[in-house]
Structures are given as C-alpha cells and as structure tokens.
Write a structure and sequence with these properties.
- The protein has 185 residues and is α+β, with helices and mostly antiparallel strands.
- The protein is built from 8 helices and 8 strands, in the order ααββββββαββααααα.
- The chain has helices at 2-11, 16-25, 80-85, 106-115, 118-141, 145-156, 165-172, 176-184, and strands at 27-31, 36-38, 46-52, 55-61, 64-71, 76-77, 92-95, 99-105.
- The strands form 2 sheets. Strands 1-8-3-6 form a 4-stranded antiparallel beta sheet.
- A hairpin with a 2-residue loop joins strand 4 and strand 5.
Length: 185
C-alpha cells in the first residue's frame, strides 16, 4: 500500500491527512492468472493499482478478443469510460499472471477528492496518462506491421516472456501467425 501512496505523493505532494484517508480506503488482493476483474456490460466500480503481475484490458469485436492495453507493475487498471461515467462498458479486465493489487472504489475516490481537493490533481494526471496511452496505441496501429513490432519490442520487450503471443498480436493488430513470422526474422 505504501507503493501506491508514494507514487501518488510523487505526482503531487498530498497532505498526511489525505495519505491516511487513502490508506484507510485502499483494499488489497491477489488474483490468479486468467481471472476476469471486469466484464462487458458491467460497471467498472474499482480502480486497481498493480503491485505485481500483469493484466490486460480488452474488448470483443467480431467474436475475437482485441487487447487494447497491458497494465504492468505501478500502473492503474480501469475501464476509463465505465469508471468515470459509472455506466456499463464494453471492456474486460483480466489478469495474465498472478497479480497483486491495491484497489479503491469509484465512490471512495469521489468522496476523497471532495474532502482532499489535491487528489483531483492526481486523478487528472492519471486520466491524462490514459489518454496519451490511447493516442499512442492508435498511432502505433497506423504504422506498417514491421514498424509496429519494432516499436513494441523496444518499449515492451519484457512482455514477450510474460504475455501470451495471441494477446500481443491482437494489441498490435496482427494475426498471431504474422507476429510469429515477423519475430523470427
């Protein structure tokens, strides 16, 4: 729990009262691989901070799973639209490896932000980071397949030993066979 509070404090120096209130609201859990934390048409009620492990956010299109992001250690896992609107969404969030998380409910986030306005700055920081991540992924998908793979390997080489190739292929907008062939070159 100290890790997430330290990260928040690095983004914006928050009061000791805010740190105490956060630590009282955060919950901890560990999930086995392939556990679905959120399904399509559910409301994303929790934000999950990854202490260890790996998750992915994906959606279903034409009966195929399309990975839209990987969530690593020290990152937050949410379905942005569903979490911030508290409406059912189209995303799934699933663990890839055994994953330890610290999590907090949307309701608790709202109450804490109302009590400690500096937390709005932190929330805004995370929201901007997610927007940038989405734009970066969108730009990646416009590149040629070999360039997509090269950029991904440069930025996320560690994922090739952790994430199933089919998830990486769907993230890159490639057929699994194409990814395998391109990696072999």
């Amino acid at each position: 729990m100290e890790t997430v509070i330290a990260q928040i404090d690095d983004i914006y120096s928050i009061s000791n009262q805010a740190k105490k209130a956060l630590s009282e609201r955060f919950l901890c859990d560990t999930f086995s691989p392939k556990i679905t934390l959120l399904k399509e048409n559910e409301i994303c009620e929790y934000a999950y901070f990854v202490v260890s492990g790996l998750l992915r956010r994906f959606y279903i299109q034409d009966d195929k799973e399309v990975t839209c992001t990987f969530i690593k250690k020290n990152q937050w896992a949410i379905s942005p639209y569903s979490f911030y609107h508290q409406e059912p969404g189209h995303d799934y969030i699933e663990t890839i490896t055994e994953t330890q998380v610290v999590y907090i409910s949307f309701q608790d986030v709202q109450e804490l932000c109302a009590s400690f306005p500096e937390l709005y700055i932190v929330d805004n920081h995370y929201l901007r980071s997610m927007i940038i991540q989405t734009i970066t992924h969108s730009r990646l998908l416009r590149l040629k397949a070999k360039d997509r793979l090269a950029l991904f390997m440069k930025a996320h080489a560690d994922l090739f030993s952790i994430a199933p190739q089919k998830h990486i292929a769907s993230f890159l907008g490639l057929a699994e066979e194409t990814l395998s062939r391109r990696r072999g070159k």
